[in-house]
Amino acid sequence: MLEGKHILLGVTGGIAAYKSALLVREFVRAGAEVQVIMTRAAAQFVTPLTFGTLSQREVVMDMFPPTPGETTTPWTRHIDLALWGDVMVIAPATANTIAKIVHGFADNFLTSLVLALRCPLAVAPAMDVDMYRNPVTQQNISLLRQRGFTVIEPATGELASGLSGPGRLPEPAVILEAVGGILAGRTRDFAGKKVLVTAGPTHEPLDPVRYLGNRSSGKMGFSIAGAAAQRGAEVTLITGPVVLPTPPHVHRIDVTTALEMHEAVLQVFTTTDVLIMAAAVADFAPVQTAPHKIKRELVAGDSFTIECVKNPDILRSAADRKTSQVLVGFALETTNEIEHARRKLTAKGLDLVVANNPTEEGAGFGSDTNIVTLITPDGRADRLPQQTKFDIANVILNRILPMLRSR
Can you give the CATH number for the domain in which 294 is found? Predict the structure, then answer.
């Protein structure tokens, strides 16, 4: 898969930079042309001469020529390389460089090149365990995924500090396989398919100020939409009120209430191949919405009763209109989730149900991770270990793919 490919290798300032030299050698052995881009900090660990010798190309470090009149570094080289590369991988990627990429900094050649890229980007975080586990770093890594970049998970083991945990740069063979997978087009296996995803909560207004809702953050649905778009699908994301950026190459439709989501889904459903209902739709809505804020002092007595009506069942409505679409539902339950999920699968004629319990540690609302069980009509129930919602999204898509092909 690497024969004749142009690989941009970014090397940043971490002790694991020595492994990047081995990575260059393996890329070259596989027939690729490698252009190394180093930060100044990286040169404190491995010299540019090492990478230049292994790649047989001049290593790029500076945005501007080192001396007036120097022509070996064109002024637009970051643009030229951005067009030259078939894939870029940053290994090791320090916490500092990851933060810069997430927030759009372009203060050195490497980060400027990332902003100009037209090819896929893979990032291999490597740092000490506490830096890796820091919530800021974890949020930045999550944002990398949401924006369509591939994150190569660090290995776990003894680190340079003497501590042990996640943060080691994976061995070159692991990175080689990940880059080969990108170039092989594994992430384009949904090309030509239309995927409809719902996400987030719905808000059912009680008055202009208050509403009935839930704690859904929308992260699971947004992860699914982003992963499907990465894999080549034409994705429509119908979302309730959330504070999340739209994943790249995703068409987003914002709604507020369950009725609005119901209408939006049915408008798109007939021309879609897959519906994945990850939204936490409110089951009930107030019968009446007050035109003004309900004042405490105007309510007689110490209690206040809200009369509610059932909202439409969006999945049931879609199932009634189903031709050859794949239908996937989520079962969010706090007790007996597998039993409830199986009933939902049968009652609504679904092809797959994703069951999860938000009270489990690592699976709560707003978390970047989840713990789910995938249930199919043949009775199979596969519980997945705790992992990021983006990784779970890809497992769900992997299960859907053979269903699509069979139809």
Answer: 3.40.50.10300
